[in-house]
Amino acid sequence: MGDQMQVIVEKLNQEPFRKNYNLISFDSLEPLQLLQLLSDVLGEIDPKHAVDIREELPEQTAKRMLNLLGILKYKPPGTVSDLSAFRQGLVTGSKAVIHPVLHWLLQRTNELRTRAYLARFLVKLEVPAEFLQDDTVADFNKQYEELMEAFKNLHKEHEQLKISGLSTAEIRRDISAMEEEKDQLAKRVERLKKRVETVQNHQRMLEIARQLRLEKEREESLAQQKQEQKSQLFHTEQRLQRAQVQLKEMQHMVADSKPESLMKKLEEEINFNSYLVNEKIPREMESKKTSVYFLQKLVAEPAMTQADLTALESEIEEVTAQMNQLIEKRIITYEPTDSKFSMYRQQASIISRKKEAKAEELQAAKEEMSSLEKQVEQKNSQAQGLGGSEVLTEEEFKQYVSRLRGKNTLYKRRRQEVAEITAEYGILQRTEELLRQRHQATQQQLQAIEEKKGISGYSYTQEELERVSAVKSEMDEVKGQTLDNMSEMVKKLNAMVAEKKASLAPVIKELRQLRQTCQELTQECDEKKMQYDSCAAGLETNRSALEQEVKGLLEECAQEESNYRYINCMKRSLEVQLQRAKEEMKAYVSPEPQERRRAVREQYTRIILEQENLGKKLREKQKVVRESHGLNMKQMKMWQDFEKLMECKRECFLKQQNQAAIGQIIQEGGKDRLVL
């Protein structure tokens, strides 16, 4: 119940309510104030319910709240009899009924606001079956249901768009950038095609370059596999050495120790592990779950602006101030019986905090030891790798990455070219097939004409002679070109090899010197790093010891300050009570009537006498009213009968006057006729 009230007070002190309650002021609210508070919360969820309950009857208030709670799907606890008690408690403003409702509403305000908004459009109106027999009413009902379904679909799409976070402007920018990049790539492909087509034997050179690239990639993969196998072998040897060292240590411990010491160590380890499993890890898991819940909630909300951050900071400051006030009130309202156990509570809290701190230190030391072991393994593998092959520098690695990107781009471009050539090859095949069919038809016609003329086989013989002569001339040209190209290529390759050797000779010398310098600097860096690590470890140890000491002193200072404030507040409250008691005693004992009237006892005595006199007068008045009630009722009935009688006489008199007027008019009409 205390946790429930704490949550309610925290939510009510936040936006949009800002009630500035504390536990004491919230618990002291009257039933009418609680009902008004519940009505305000419901009005925040559904603006139609933001009303003042003093302007409506209690039955209307209860009915309105019950209807909204039913729409929001709130389920009161208990059976049917408990439901009737729930309705009665809601009418009377009972804390046992309203507190759970407030707790349920304030924990899911956003969800319930959405549900209340949807209920205005999705709560179906029940039309009686006899009205649905009318065609017009049935058509309107059908349209109403279709509109409800359309609203559901639109709301779902709206929520999905809100969650997706897609921006049309960003998509358009990406599309335009991709189109520009596509145009640039197409232009580059065209330029490279034109440049390659001018080179002689470009197909053969491309094939040789492809084979060279494949062989280099294979060589690199084999070298990488070799390096990985070396590192795996090294790690395996290291693990074997560590296992052997641990085995020797365990054998030494078993040989030199006693069963009692081993049992004691095992018990300590079991106690530590049980503390981790039963206390520390569940608490950490609970905190992690809470943080994950808040992070998910934060991710689901829209992006926050600087104004939102400023508002949250102000809320944090207000909540901190309220917490300090509650702590001070709690210290003031401590009972004397609680003060007897304060020392034991403080000692228990100090011991629990020290226990948690030591457990965290031990866990951190274990994690640090495991990380250091991993670093040692990495350093050993790096040292082994340095001894076996060269390590790329940052610039070389960047160049390697840029080359990979260029190769990837070239590969994509070539793949696209291959696809285009494949498509063109299919078109050419189809064209060739059509031309072949036409050629066959033409040959058949030519043979038929030759047979008619008597020169069958003339065209075939002529084509064979032309083909043989063309093939012979092409072979002669190819042989001459091949010999010339081979001689030119050999000359060019020899010249390129000589130039590369001459240009790489000074670079190789510089590289050897730089390698030697790099090894010396690496060795010096390792030595300096070892010195730095040892010095940093010592300083870190001293710093942690000083931090623990300072933390303990701060805790003691805070505890002493808390005791001082508690004693000072108790002293002030006792002084105020003592002063009030002295003034009351002085006024009560004083012989002067004025002073005695100021005493609280005299004031309450006077008020009691006045109320007793007022009660006597009211009872006498009630007695007089009861005695005269029968006569008054009889007299009232007589006056009512008299009023009815007079009304009847008035109506009779009016009727008589109307009849007399009609008779006079008839007589005047007869006289006029006689005169005529």
From TrEMBL:
One of its GO terms (cellular component) is intraciliary transport particle B. GO terms for molecular function: tubulin binding. GO terms for biological process: cell differentiation; cilium assembly; intraciliary transport; spermatogenesis. Component of the intraflagellar transport (IFT) complex B: together with IFT74, forms a tubulin-binding module that specifically mediates transport of tubulin within the cilium. Binds tubulin via its CH (calponin-homology)-like region. Required for ciliogenesis. Required for proper regulation of SHH signaling. Plays an important role during spermatogenesis by modulating the assembly and elongation of the sperm flagella. This is Intraflagellar transport protein 81 homolog. It is found in: Cytoplasm, Cytoskeleton, Cilium basal body. Its main location: cytoplasm. Keywords: Acetylation, Cell projection, Cilium, Cilium biogenesis/degradation, Coiled coil, Cytoplasm, Cytoskeleton, Differentiation, Phosphoprotein, Spermatogenesis. Residues 3-126 form the IFT81 calponin homology domain. Pfam families: IFT81_CH. It comes from the Eukaryota. Gene3D superfamilies: Intraflagellar transport protein 81, N-terminal domain (1.10.418.70). InterPro entries: IFT81, IFT81_CH, IFT81_N_sf. Belongs to the IFT81 family. Residues 137-253, 309-382, 483-563 form a coiled coil.
